[in-house]
């Protein structure tokens, strides 16, 4: 396809044979854990990404049920020079979870058991293929705990997948990054060896912290098969408020005030611009949060142990924000379903922005004061090039929108398009990456590099850092069988 015109299949990788398939069948035994191209459409889900932007050509999906099976498969692939694409819930947004050519897809979806949960320490041990929402429900029902990460894809993405991408999500502000909460991992290395590092210690300074290397490694140096993670107690009270704000300047002021005045109960601070809300409006039918339109919106979540205390604190904060004219309008949830509705206006943006035909997604870290300037710069550039119009259907671009995790300095720039064209792509890239690099930001705040950003790592990492990344890849995967053609 056009997307792949600049990469070529590496002939060092063997092409799959009938004998290979027979070998895998013997390892897996069970019916249904191996999908071939006998019925080609059976492979579609695994070959295509969530955005339907990237498409691989794999002819084989393997779905082992045990770590031992993963190990045997990878050992064989290593011996035979067969390339492998590890896959979790396939909700990744950078084309990392699907093959580029004919790599074998190793899906961990059938490694889906909770191994143990300690309701005193809050430590969960589970298989990598457990769906995030299932893990969260399990620890809720077995001790009233919460998974220290939440994101819009929770109903499909895996615990192993979020670790492999080091996903950030909606509550990083409260619970921090997975680099802090993951206590241990079980990983099948590219030669088939099983690294059992499923520790459950909060403190362990015996040498290098090896698990960290795999958090955010995007399937390039090992297949995560088990995760040990520390989960915090589930707050009893959640409140969500949705506010209309005049400018991005004001968004920052509200953030500063929220940190100071809501303090320990602040658990999320998200923002979106007017166009984000407008696109979402045409895509979902939930009741609209506010009557009028505003240039920017802020979603604030508080969570704590005492509903009365939290609600009084939030009310005081909001009335003073109105008095100081930082906020123009607002609403607060009074029950769980209202809170869910308000969250849906934020969580549905990633899907809504693609609904008009397609979307170019950029996920960047920038200094807070510059966070929104990228969206303005991109809109100006697209308009100057005559490529963008909300109403004129002959233009490829609908609009560039901005939203994201203000609390973490992470902007999501989504360029909603009617159709993908080279003109639009050339207008956006490398412009966006140069802009971010010029402000010392990161071109990949949370989604990873995958295939989309394979050529752009240099905008955020030095030559020396890239050299060390390559050295590590060569130590662990000298044959390069894991997730080739991606960022390493
Ligand atoms: P996949 O998409 O299957 O894989 C992602 C990468 O990890 C690939 O490179 C794959 O090879 C590798 N991988 C997967 N499983 C394993 C494994 N067991 N071992 C080794 N490698 C593996 N991300 C955020 O950070 N914050 C958000 O708020 C957020 N919201 C999202 C909302 C929506 C609606 C969607 C669709 C995505 C969102 N994402 C977000 C993107 C995010 O990267 C994924 O949702 C999640 O982290 C990927 O998990 P997955 O199981 O689907 O992995
Ligand atoms: C979110 O925060 C996700 O909603 C997805 O990280 C962002 O689709 C995007 O660009
Ligand atoms: Zn995000």
UniProtKB/TrEMBL annotation:
Subcellular location: Mitochondrion
Protein keywords: FAD, Flavoprotein, Metal-binding, Mitochondrion, Oxidoreductase, Transit peptide, Zinc
Keyword field contains Oxidoreductase: yes
Catalytic activity line of the entry: (R)-2-hydroxyglutarate + pyruvate = (R)-lactate + 2-oxoglutarate; (R)-lactate + 2 Fe(III)-[cytochrome c] = 2 Fe(II)-[cytochrome c] + pyruvate + 2 H(+); (R)-malate + A = oxaloacetate + AH2
Listed cofactors: FAD
Family as reported in the entry's similarity comment: Belongs to the FAD-binding oxidoreductase/transferase type 4 family.
Protein's name according to its UniProt entry: D-2-hydroxyglutarate dehydrogenase, mitochondrial
Organism, as annotated: Hanseniaspora guilliermondii
